[in-house]
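Encode chain A's predicted structure.
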Amino acid sequence: MNKDQYRGQYYTGLLQAVSVILPLTIAIRASNNMLITTIPLLARYGFGFSNTLVGIISALVSLMSFVSSGIINSRLHASIRRLVFRISSIIYAIVFPFFAFSSAITIWVLSAVAGFVLGFLMPNVITSASLLPNRVDRERLLNIYTLSLSTALIVGPAIESLILRYYSLRESFIFFTAFPIMGVVTAFMLKFPNEGAGHGGSSFRQIITNPGFIAAVLNILTYNVVFSFLMAFGGIYAREAFGLSYSDVELLFSIFFVTSFLGRLYLSVKPARRLWPYMASSVAITTMGVLAIALTNNPLIYAIALLALGLPHGITYPLSVVSISRAFKPEQRNAANSLFFSMMMVIGIVTPTVTGYIADLIGIRPTFFVLIPPVLIALVLLRKYVTPIDIPRD
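Encoded structure for chain A:
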C-alpha cells in the first residue's frame, strides 16, 4: 500500500467515525439534557414536589446510570456490550414519550428506566471515539465528540424553548422523541473495540488508582458539582427569582451552552498538550460565575454569569476524557470510561440530593455559596494527579 492509499484509508476511517459519532451523540445528549432540565420543572410545577424531592428525582436518574455504567457495562465483553447498547437505544426511544403522560408516581419509574439505559449509551460512545491509535488524532476526535455534545446542548434547549412558546411541558416530550429515534438508527452503526474479556487486563483497583483516572474524576468534580445543581435547580431559580417563562428558562440554558461550544471548538482545532493550565483556569471562572449568580438580583447578570460558566463546562469534560485516553490502552478504555461515567453519576446523585435539602432550609440562592468549597478542594487535589499525564510521550 502506497502513502496516498494509506492516507485515503485513514481519512475515510476518520470521516466514517465522525459521521456516526456526531449524530448519535447529538441525539442522545439533546434528549438526555431535555430530561434532566425538564423533569425538575414538571415535578415542581406539575406535581408540586419540594426542592428535596426535585433533588431526589434528579439523583434517581444518575443513580440508575451509575448502576448500569459502573457496575454492569464496565464488566461486559465488547460483543455483549454491542447488543446491550442497541437494545438500550430502543428502550430509551420507547420510554421517552411516556413522560408526557406521567403522574406523580409513574414519573419516578420512567426516570429510573431512562437513567438505567442511558448508562449503557454514553460510555460506549466515548469509547468508540477514543479508538484511533495516534494520540493527536484520537484527542482531536474526542474533542469533536465533546463538540457534538455542546452542539446538542445548544440546539436542544433552543428547540425546546420554541416548542414551549406554543405547547406545554408535557407535550414537549412528544416532540423530543425524534432525538431518541435518531439515536436508534445510528446506534447500529457504532464501532466497538476488539478486546479480551472483562477489563482488558486491568482490575477495578488498577483503574481507580491510575493517576490519569483520578485526575479525570477530580477535574470533572470541579465543575459537575455546579453543573448538577444548575440542571436541577437553575430553571426553578430563574422562574422564582426573575419570573421567567418556561420558554425563557430553556433559552437561558441554550445561551449557557454557546460558550461551552466555543470552548470545545477551540480544543477540537487545537488539542491541549498541557492539561493543568486549562483545569486551573476553569476553576477560577467557575468560582467567579457562581459568586455572580449568588450575589445578583438582575436577570441580565444571571444570563452573563451563565455565559461565563459555559466556558468551563466546555473544556472540563474534554480534558477528563483526554486524561483517560492518555492513561489507558484501547482495550482498557471501556472499563475506564464506564467507571468514569459512573463517577459522574455519583456526583449527579449526591449533589442534587444534598443541595435540594439545603435549598429547602436556606433557599436556592444561598445554596450557590455552598458549592464553592468542594470545587476548590478538588482543585488542590487535582494538581498532584494531573502531572504524570500532563505532557504525553507519544
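The chain is about 80% helix and 0% strand.
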